[in-house]
Specification:
The complex is a heterodimer of chains A (about 270) and B (about 260). By secondary structure, chain A is of the alpha/beta class. Helix content of chain A is about 20%, strand content about 35%. Chain B is of the alpha/beta class. Chain B contains seven helices and 15 strands. Chain B is globular, with a radius of gyration of 19 Å. Classes of the chains: A alpha/beta (about 270), B alpha/beta (about 260). Chains A and B meet through helix 6, strand 11, strand 14 and strand 16 of A and helix 7, strand 10, strand 13 and strand 15 of B. Chain A: InterPro entries: Thi_PPkinase, Thiamin_pyrophosphokinase_euk, Thiamin_PyroPKinase_B1-bd, TPK_B1-bd_sf, TPK_catalytic, TPK_catalytic_sf. Chain A: Belongs to the thiamine pyrophosphokinase family. Chain A: It is an enzyme of class 2 (transferase).
Chain lengths: ~270, ~260
């Protein structure tokens, strides 16, 4: 379990150990259950590593095209066919307006469950995937579940904004948005946060952003420019181009904050 | 007391041959290029601008990227033609040969490596607002390339510049979309150039919730609607006409997709 109580506020611990090759992960850390959600943008270079970590892989609509087309160049496979047969998502979910017919046919013939939600135009594809995970994960397993998402950042800005909003709408779940350059997580104001930095694959550049509402008091440790009961808001000071200087960063705030850290050495 | 109106137009994205609307004729454009791959319409917006500023490694992108975007032309000739007026920033990304090349052509190199408190974009916007004389400040529009995507903290820092310079029109452009701030101090009229932008759009309350926003011209209009992170935000909306109006009690980011 990754929860313990310090004074009156629970501590939430975060680790990016999923970015390490499986053999390098500490045997002492609690085993997390990773789910992977693939959205419709270019796959990050380290996709095979994420795929190997996950117990469940969901492609959101056109995310399936990306796996079909792009996994091969990240592997040492002989040919595209071998790669395609190795990387079969368990589920393909969404409104199905981007997935190519031949891609849908291939994966359904290989056993992927096709969950057609085209009747539901109210929510984004990421929202549908996270809803599914929320609905089907038993409560006692929820604290151990960590959802890794690729393709949520960049591209159309309204899509990116909606994807970030999913972190806020499901703030009790651990959801990490990943790109080639960085990862982002929500740090809910309800908890004190301890971030364990894997310096071989992340950092040193980092930041904290009060995207939903300003913070009147945020305190950090472990950064080059720490905050000390500092105010943050858009239009004034936000923490960008900060630097991690310790293996452990702590954050406590009166506002929900987005944490970001740069990624490296993952090609 | 009704709010003053601010109008917005993307006429600068129209091909150069198109006759400029009255808006485009009156507006003075400045261009800032940050350190990311140039979007495909970079030569078009370069031609519109009265002043072109590269932020540090943005100069590498112009040097490498303009000849790539104009493959039918002689690269050396392209580089001479697309010469920035100013290169500004902390100079830790610009390649020495690129700096040398533009400096020999007369580009003003302004080294800000002593100032680590503000982002490259902030420095460039400050420079432009201090140095570019425009009779009516509301007619200045700063176009920025390379502010979106890449490292998320850079993107957030760039969006924060829109909030910090809320009295200046600044538009962030990528291959996929355009974004700019709609300050709560004004009622907004956004003129839509359908040939180059839309239909997908959104209104995003970054920085703080809105208790009341009202729009016209969208497929799903807002009517004194609340918006917030953790609640409703307007994304995957559609522009329905030539003009969108927005009035809000909070600063909002407007975004619209660009056509390929």
């Amino acid at each position: 379990m990754l929860w313990r109580t310090v004074r009156s506020m629970d501590v939430m611990m975060h680790s990016s150990s999923f970015l390490l090759p499986k053999m390098h992960q500490s045997a002492n850390k609690p085993v997390k259950n990773y789910a992977l959600v693939v959205l419709n943008q270019h796959l990050p270079r380290f996709m095979p590593r994420l795929w190997a970590q996950a117990n469940l892989r969901i492609c959101a609509d056109g995310g399936a095209n990306r796996i079909f087309d792009e996994m091969f160049q990240m592997t040492n496979d002989e040919d595209k066919k071998s790669t395609r047969n190795r990387y079969i998502p368990e589920i393909i979910e969404g409104d199905m307006d981007s997935i190519r017919p031949e891609v849908k046919l291939f994966y359904s013939s290989q056993g992927s469950k096709i969950s057609d939600k085209s009747h539901n135009q109210e929510t984004t594809d990421l929202h549908k995937c996270i809803s599914r995970l929320h609905r089907y994960t038993p409560d006692h397993e929820k604290p151990n579940l960590c959802v890794l998402v690729t393709g949520a950042l960049g591209g159309r800005f309204d899509h990116e904004a909606a994807n970030i909003n999913v972190l806020y709408l499901f703030s009790e779940m651990r959801i990490i948005l990943l790109s080639d350059d960085c990862l982002i997580r929500l740090l809910p104001k309800t908890h004190r946060h301890e971030l364990y930095i894997e310096s071989s694959v992340e950092g040193p550049h980092c930041g904290l952003f009060p995207v939903g509402a300003p913070s009147t008091s945020t305190t950090t440790t472990g950064l080059k420019w720490n905050l000390s009961e500092s105010k943050m808001r858009f239009g004034s000071m936000i923490s960008t181009s900060n630097i991690v200087q310790s293996e452990k960063v702590t954050v406590q705030s009166d506002a929900d904050l987005l944490w970001t850290i740069s990624l490296r050495n993952l090609a | 007391m009704p709010l003053p109106t601010m109008t917005h137009s993307s006429a600068f994205l129209l091909p150069a041959a198109a006759p400029p609307s009255n808006d485009a004729a009156a507006t003075t454009y400045a261009l800032i290029v940050l350190n990311q791959r140039l979007p495909r319409f970079a030569p078009l917006v370069w031609a519109r601008a009265r002043l072109r500023v590269c932020a540090d490694g943005g100069a590498n992108r112009v040097f490498d990227g303009m000849p790539e975007l104009l493959p039918g032309e002689d690269p050396a000739e392209v580089r001479t033609r697309y010469k920035p007026d100013v290169i500004k920033g902390d100079m830790d990304s610009i390649r020495p040969e690129v700096k040398e090349y533009y400096s020999s052509l007369g580009t003003n190199i302004v080294d800000e490596s002593h100032d680590q408190d503000t982002t490259d974009l902030h420095k460039c916007v400050s420079f432009i607002t201090s140095n570019l004389f425009v009779p009516d400040k509301s007619n200045l529009c700063i176009i920025v390339l390379g502010a979106l995507g890449g490292r998320f903290d850079h993107e957030m820092g760039n969006i924060n510049v829109l909030y910090r310079f809320s009295n200046t029109k600044i538009i962030l452009l990528s291959d996929d979309c355009s974004i700019f701030l709609l300050p709560k101090t004004h009622s907004h009229e956004i003129h839509i150039e359908k040939s180059v932008e839309g239909p997908h759009c959104g209104l995003i309350p970054i920085g703080g919730p809105s208790t009341s926003t009202t729009t016209t011209g969208l497929r799903w209009n807002l009517d004194n609607t609340s918006m917030s992170y953790g609640g409703l935000i307007s994304t995957s909306n559609i522009v329905d006409g030539d003009k969108v109006t927005v009035t809000s009690d909070s600063d909002l980011i407007w975004t619209i997709s660009l056509r390929h």
